[in-house]
Inverse folding.
């Protein structure tokens, strides 16, 4: 049979030799050229799959990380335009053959580009992988550099109360002179009700509503003058559409600030 094609090389690198037909596997055993190609693809794939085992952080650590990275995503398109405008040289365009007919169907044309050699394919494969990793790194770096001036004061876990199994986190932070409470809590099935976030005093006698919560995350600005040394209990309750502004008594999760 003829040499293995690009698709077979890629499958070998990703899945192993078991994906080949018996004929292709027999050819690989006999063909030095194809074995060299496979080795090159495997080397690149192994490098991209290399992992480092990390210790799992606590929930409080995750909450602080999420609060620190809470910023607008980086505009990669504008960065690419800036780099392009500042380039000192511009590569010559690749000529494209004029279409000779509508071989691709009604309204379509087909042009054929020359087949690249094996080394160019490997270089392109590695370059594409490097670009993907570099783009991801740029997003993370940009978030760290451009994030708002926010200081995390503390982060706590929110534990479920009887009848509920949801768990979440509450993060208190300072941003631009405001004190912000960020609630991360997967949205549970609550039927025809809604969720409301409260701050309750140490003696569980007085409480202040911060507002309703939709989705898995919500941010609330602490009212100016509210004493967080006294109102230390964070509570998320299930409320009903009954027009009653008081706490329903049905708390989903609760945690205490220190």
């Amino acid at each position: 049979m003829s040499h293995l094609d690009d698709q077979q090389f890629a499958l070998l690198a990703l899945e192993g030799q078991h994906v080949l037909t018996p004929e292709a596997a027999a050819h690989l055993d006999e063909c030095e050229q194809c074995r060299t190609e496979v080795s090159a693809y495997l080397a690149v794939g192994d490098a991209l799959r290399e992992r480092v085992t990390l210790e799992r952080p606590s929930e409080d650590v995750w909450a602080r990380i999420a609060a620190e990275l809470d910023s607008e995503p980086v505009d990669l398109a504008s960065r690419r335009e800036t780099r392009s405008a500042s380039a000192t040289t511009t590569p010559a365009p690749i000529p494209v053959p004029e279409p000779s007919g509508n071989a691709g169907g009604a309204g379509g044309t087909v042009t054929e580009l020359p087949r690249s050699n094996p080394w160019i394919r490997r270089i392109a494969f590695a370059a594409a992988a490097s670009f993907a990793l570099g783009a991801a790194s740029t997003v993370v770096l940009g978030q760290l550099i451009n994030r708002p001036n926010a200081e995390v004061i503390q982060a706590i876990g929110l534990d479920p109360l009887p009848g509920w199994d949801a768990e979440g986190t509450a993060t208190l932070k300072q941003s631009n002179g405001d004190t912000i409470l960020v609630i991360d809590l997967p949205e549970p099935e609550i039927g025809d009700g809604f969720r409301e976030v409260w701050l309750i005093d140490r003696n569980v006698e007085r409480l202040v509503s911060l507002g309703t919560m939709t989705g898995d995350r919500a941010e609330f600005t602490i009212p100016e003058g509210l004493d967080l040394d006294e109102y230390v209990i964070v509570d998320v309750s299930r409320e009903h559409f009954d027009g009653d502004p008081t706490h329903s008594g049905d708390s989903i999760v609760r945690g205490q600030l220190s």
